[in-house]
Design a protein that fits this description.
Length: about 190
């Protein structure tokens, strides 16, 4: 499996995960906890706590938390406005969803940083292997005294620069350069 396939696979996995998270957010209205009517609230003597928390875990390992709040009616028989009571559970649910999304984004950022580090490591490994292959191809089919000149020719240096760096004549550098071109042509036709 090549580097390109690994990168495409990682991108596909991340895309599926983001799509799943977006699906979960879009169906957020269906996951809301039904509110209990006021008749189900225990009497004041038996309910000293003002809230109860219930936690549930999905089969997938997500750590979603579900909070149910049951408040006893105040000692005075004043009832809060209907809009205020309905907006509190919704705003609390939205706040929980925002916190979960922030955790998911932080986790994805960490995973993305790990993937970038891995990609950099793989790129360095590929470059090192390419240089080793180039060096082995340079030594294959050439005299040992012209190995360095052959490497320079494969890198694309001109004849005068090769002759100056390797201490050979311009004619020898031209021969080495033509040898490098012929080897490049042969390896290109073998790969096709």
């Amino acid at each position: 499996m090549g580097l390109r396939e690994v990168i495409l696979l990682a991108i596909a996995v991340l895309a599926v995960y983001v799509g799943y998270q977006l699906y979960r957010v879009s169906r957020g209205g269906a996951d809301k906890v039904p509110t209990t009517p006021a008749t189900d609230v225990p009497d004041k003597a038996s309910a000293p706590l003002s809230s109860t928390a219930v936690s549930a875990e999905d089969a997938e390992g997500d750590d979603d938390e579900l909070f149910l709040f049951e408040r006893p009616s105040p000692p005075h028989s004043e009832t809060p406005p209907a809009g205020d009571a309905a907006s509190r559970p919704e705003s609390f649910q939205l706040e929980l969803e925002v916190r979960q999304l922030r955790r998911d984004v932080a986790q994805q950022q960490t995973e993305l940083a790990d993937l970038r580090r891995l990609l950099d490591e793989l790129g360095a490994t590929v470059r090192l292997q390419k240089e080793q292959v180039d060096a082995s191809l340079a030594s294959h089919g050439a005299s040992p005294e012209y190995n360095e000149a052959l490497v320079f020719a494969k890198r694309g240096l001109d004849v005068e620069a090769i002759a100056e760096r390797c201490g050979i004549t311009v004619a020898e550098a031209a021969l080495v350069q033509s040898l490098a071109r012929s080897q490049a042509g042969e390896s290109g036709s073998q790969h096709e």
